[in-house]
Amino acid sequence: MMRILHILNHTRRLNGHVHAAVDLACEQVNQGHQVYIASEGGDFDALLKANGVKTLQIDQQRKVPSLLRALFSLNRSLKQYDIDVVHAHMMTSAVIAFPVCKLRRIPLVTTVHNEFEKSATLMGLGTRVIAVSDVVGASMRRRGVPQSKLKVVLNGTIGTSRSKGRSEEPKALRSPSILFVGGLHPRKGLPDLFDAFETVHRSYPTANLYIVGDGPFREEYQARAAALESASAITFVGSTTDPYPYMLGADIFVLPSHADPAPLVLSEAREAGCAVIGSAVDGIPQLLENGEAGLLVPPHDPAALAKMLGFLLEAPDRISDWRLKSQFHIERLTIERVARETFDVYCSAMPRAKVLALAS
């Protein structure tokens, strides 16, 4: 049994790194560990507590007084709960944890969730650095993180505590249905999807596009969609705590991202059995088994995306075929595997004597 403390800015929904940390913490409890999450709190605190994860309040605002209080609070918690390993999930958390872990001689493990941010280099402060895909690992090596520190643990969501109790009833969507789930901001490439759908809709006027999610560019994207000839076939659903029924009801799931280290939503879309199209960028090809579990298109290329959508829409049997292909090696995307591989990373960051003592 290991005593693990995760530190992240908050536990609010609609942030992929938060979902990943919450999923991991709950599964680690299932695997017999004592787990804590230190953050300023959020929507997932009730779920964490229900699954045996103890939540600790640490404000991590980027102001000197707040950061100093966070340092002292973290130090106190590490001592009080006799923590064996600290796992930081964001830059501020890593910077706070680094000096405290050095002082207490506790290994610090960091996970690089948002490699596209310049500040991701600071995640190299960890004793071990987890990359959420092979591409992220290669990027961190180029940034100067030694290979000996780096370990790749691919994201996965199947079997998470978040998924327990979710609705398994598919949403009734107008078929053929094309679905996007994610944040409404430029990195996700939604304008490319709008342009591709406009092209496809001329040939397949019964096709429908559903946008599930929210974000700072929602009004801009709604205005852009409203100006299209296909506007009446585009539905903005908004944010939802459970997008899975939309995935169950969709024919085609599209993720046209420009940058996406290892999006959890692809694991969920594949679990739901969607025919998947994704950009050939960052960790997306790896999550789609390099094209065997989903179709890949170049990023920033609406014409290529339109062609791929047309390829599926012109023959319903192809959609059925790619639904089946979405299940290829789906067992690799379980949270059980993520937690097991993460535990191995923790052990690699500790002296062998410590690992043996914990195992006894």
Automatic annotation (TrEMBL):
Domain Glycosyltransferase subfamily 4-like N-terminal, by residue range, is: 15-156
Q: Does the keyword Transferase apply?
A: yes
Domain of life where this protein originates: Bacteria
**Does this UniProt record's set of keywords contain Flavoprotein?**
no
Q: Which intervals hold domain Glycosyl transferase family?
A: 166-318
Q: Which residues cross the membrane?
A: none
Q: Name one GO molecular function term.
A: glycosyltransferase activity
Matching entries from Pfam families are given as: Glyco_transf_4 (PF13439), Glycos_transf_1 (PF00534)
Name the SUPFAM superfamilies on file: UDP-Glycosyltransferase/glycogen phosphorylase
Q: Which UniProt keywords apply?
A: Transferase
UniProt-listed InterPro entries:
Glyco_trans_1 (IPR001296), Glyco_trans_4-like_N (IPR028098)
Under which name does UniProt file this protein?
Glycosyltransferase protein
Give the organism the record lists. Rhizobium mesoamericanum STM3625
